[in-house]
């Protein structure tokens, strides 16, 4: 049976009969599609994809095994998201502080280089030296890259938590960002070079 004839039959039938016809029409070697995932079936939210905020306590986080069943488990999950948001903001503040330290060390090294080169060639100015890109450094660049990976990875985890559209998860992330901004905000500002 072709797809078009099956679709025409589907439009002329009542909804329940159409679903049955589609299932029985696939009996010629094709499997029917079940839209239920284990996570939605286990939580009782079969086939539901939330596009609005909801407050169901048994919303899975990251895996179907991580589905809070009790109020204490839900509170612990929200606290975990709070700590995760604080952690990512702390990493951002740490990176800003390390960048400032690395920049100061590079400037001091460059001033030494400018002083020695200007003695050799008076046309070599400090402005010309500041335009040069810093060389790759084994002590700096891997740490910078690792901090970027941690920041982006945890940021994506927080985004996935918010995308569950669970109000508790969303508010936990916002509370973590607010608290960490109060605690670390002064360390994550400053001139970045």
From TrEMBL:
Pfam families: Ctr. The keyword Transmembrane applies. The chain crosses the membrane at residues 72-92. It is a multi-pass membrane protein. It is found in: Membrane. One of its GO terms (cellular component) is plasma membrane. Keywords: Copper, Copper transport, Ion transport, Membrane, Transmembrane, Transmembrane helix, Transport. GO terms for molecular function: copper ion transmembrane transporter activity. Belongs to the copper transporter (Ctr) (TC 1.A.56) family. SLC31A subfamily. This is Copper transport protein.
